[in-house]
Every structure is written in structure tokens, then in C-alpha cells.
Write a structure and sequence with these properties.
Layout: H1 10-36, H2 38-64, H3 79-162, H4 170-192
């Protein structure tokens, strides 16, 4: 995969150059401090520079296939070059660390926002399901009351049918029920006498 200029990943190279440019003032300050402070130079500038130079030389020898000689000892850098390389590495490491922390913070904020959205949608979903369940309970209760009312109507119709005075015409049915009840009252009073 190569870009338009024939170089692989041109945007990553551009980003790395941008970081180097931003880190340059910090690298200059680190180099000045390393020249003044021997302990700072030995702890922060020289070890990363020597380590970087050692592995860079080994990798170059392997990939360039320079001779069949195995590299056992890489020549050390002189102190001025090592301080410059070490200060550049330290500055780039600091800038990349800060950028990584900022990016990680943004990712964590994004995840928190997504988690809050998910919680809100889950809460809304549970509220809707609870509401639907309550509506189902209300509908069941109303259906039960309707069935009870239908049952009462059926019971009253059966009562009228069994008394022998059930008719399609309600006013006629009510007159016949009155006369039937009057006869029943007359019979019961006759029996008492």
C-alpha cells in the first residue's frame, strides 16, 4: 500500500513530522538542561539515545544485508549527538504521551456518553413495557367485568325463561312477570289462611 508519492502511509509520516516539529522547542530545552546537569544527562538523555542507536544500527545491518558478518558491537555515539538524539526522543515521548492521554480521555468520555444513552434507552424501554403490562391488566379487569355483566344478563334471562314468562317483548314480559308474581302472592296468602 503506497500513497500518491510512492511512500507508504503518507498521513502517518505527516503526523510524525508534525509531532517532531512541536517537540523541537521542548527538545532544545531538554538538551540545554542535559548539558548543564550531569545526572539529568546520564538518566534521561544518554540511555534512550544509546538504546535507540544500538537497535537502529542492528536493524539497518539486517535489512540492508551488509555482508554476512554478524554485528556484535555497535559503535557508541559521541556525547553531543547522543544528547541531541536523547533530548529529541524524550521530547517526542512527552508529546506523544500527552496526546495519548488526551485521546484516551476523549475515548472514555465517548464511552460514558454511549453508556448514558444506553441506560436512558433501557430505562425508557422498561417504562414502556411496564406501561403496556399495566394496560393489559386494566384490559383484563375490564374484560372480566364485561363477562360478569354478561353473566348477570344471562342469569336474569334464564330466570325469566324458567318462570315461564320470558318473552321477546320486554314490556309484555314485565306485565306477565307482574301477573305471575301476583298469582304467586295470592297462592301463598291462600295457603296461610
Amino acid at each position: 500500500m503506497s500513497g500518491p508519492g510512492g511512500q507508504p502511509f503518507p498521513l502517518s509520516k505527516l503526523a510524525f513530522m508534525y509531532v517532531k516539529k512541536i517537540a523541537q522547542p521542548l527538545a532544545n530545552r531538554i538538551a540545554v538542561r542535559a548539558k548543564k546537569d550531569q545526572r539529568f544527562k546520564e538518566m534521561f538523555c544518554l540511555p534512550p539515545a544509546n538504546l535507540y542507536h544500538f537497535y537502529e544500527a542492528k536493524i539497518k545491518f539486517i535489512f540492508m544485508n551488509i555482508g554476512k558478518i554478524r554485528v556484535t558491537k555497535v559503535p557508541k555515539l559521541d556525547e553531543k549527538t547522543a544528547i541531541e538524539l536523547g533530548s529529541n526522543l524524550c521530547a517526542e515521548f512527552i508529546i506523544m504521551s500527552i496526546a495519548s492521554v488526551i485521546a484516551l480521555n476523549e475515548v472514555m468520555k465517548y464511552k460514558e456518553r454511549e453508556r448514558l444513552k444506553d441506560e436512558a434507552s433501557d430505562k425508557e424501554f422498561t417504562e414502556l413495557t411496564d406501561y403496556v403490562k399495566r394496560l393489559e391488566n386494566v384490559i383484563d379487569a375490564q374484560n372480566q367485568k364485561i363477562n360478569e355483566m354478561l353473566g348477570l344478563k344471562c342469569d336474569s334471562n334464564e330466570f325469566l325463561r324458567y318462570s315461564g314468562s320470558f318473552a321477546v317483548d320486554w314490556p309484555a314480559a314485565s306485565k306477565s312477570t307482574k301477573s305471575a308474581t301476583a298469582k304467586a302472592d295470592a297462592n301463598s296468602s291462600a295457603q296461610k289462611i
